[in-house]
Amino acid sequence: MPVLDRELLILQIFAQRAKSSEGKLQVEVAQLEHLATRLVRGWTHLERQRGGLGKTGGPGEKQIELDRRLIGVRIKRLRERLKALGKQRRTQRRARARRDVFSVSLVGYTNAGKSTLFNALTRGASFVADQLFATLDTTSRRCFVAGAMEVVLSDTVGFIRGLPHQLVDAFKSTLEESIEADLLLHVVDASSPARDAQMAEVDRVLAEIGAADVPRLLVFNKIDRLDRSAAAERDACGTIRAVFVSAATGDGIEFLREAIAERVHAAREAAAESRQSAAAAVTATASAISAHK
C-alpha cells in the first residue's frame, strides 16, 4: 500500500480537485518540486550508467541525476506556461482598474464556506461541497451591493495550516487576486472550535504572499449552526469591522452587501481627496515656477 505524508496527501487532493488548465499546471509544478527533493536514496539500487562505446566509455549519469535533470526541464516549461497565463490575468486586472471597478476577494481557511458565500452574493453556481479544497481555480463574477453599486468578487483557494511551500509558490499567480484586491473578505467558520487558530493561519499566509496591508473585513459564516442572529459589528469609528452571516440560508447577506458598499464609498472618497491634493500640489508648483520667472 502507498504511504503518503501530509504534504503529499494535500498535493494529491489538489491534483484531484483542479479543473482549469492553470490549476492543473500549478499542481503539477508543486508535485514535481516535491518529488525533486525526495529523489535522494530513491534510486540507490541502480548502478551508474556507462557512456561511450563499450568498455572505453567513461562513467555516465546516475539514474537520480538523469531524473533530476528531466524534472528540472519539465518544471521550467510549466513555469513558462504559467507565466504566460499570469500575464493574461494581470491584463484583465489592469482592464478592471481602468474601468475603476472595485475588486473584492474572498479569502479564508479551507471549508469555511467561501464558495457558498460567493454564490449567495453573485447568484452564481460555483461548485460547493463540504470537503477540503473544493475550490482551487479562481472565479470572478460581478456582484451588486447596496445602491445598485457594482463590484467584482473573486473566489480563491482556501488556506490550511502548514500549507506546503511548493503550493504557495505555484499558486502565486492565483493568489495575486488577493494581493491586488481593494478589499479582502476574510471568511471564518464561526462554528469551528479551532476558529482562532484558523484565523491566525490565514493572517500568516496573507502576510507571506504580501497581502497583509490590504483592507480586510471579517465575515463570520455558518451562524445557522450557532445560537446567534445575523448582525454587523462596528468599531470605535463607526465602520463595520465584522459581519455575522449564514451563506447557506442567506441570513445576514444584506448586512454584508451594506458593509461592502460602505468600504467602496470610503475608498472612492479617499481616492478623490488624493487626486484633489495632487492637483493642488501641481497647481502650487506651477504658480511658484511662474512667479520665479
The neighbouring-strand order within the major sheet is: 2-3-1-4-5-7-6
Alpha-carbon Rg, integer: 25 Å
Q: Give the N-to-C terminal Cα separation.
A: 85 Å
Helix content estimate = 40-55%
**Number of extended strands:** 7
H/I helix tally = 8
The chain-level structural class is alpha/beta
Overall shape: it is globular
Query: Describe the biggest sheet?
Result: 7 strands, mixed
Q: Which percent range describes the beta-strand content?
A: 5-15%
User: What's the overall average pLDDT, rounded?
Assistant: 77
Strand/helix succession: HHHEHEEHHEHEEEH
**Unreliable spans:** 42-49
Task: Say what oligomer this is.
Answer: single chain
Task: Kindly describe this structure.
The chain has eight helices and seven strands; from the N terminus they run αααβαββααβαβββα. By secondary structure, it is α/β, with parallel strands linked by helices. It has a seven-stranded mixed beta sheet, sandwiched between helices. β6 and β7 (240-244) form a beta hairpin.
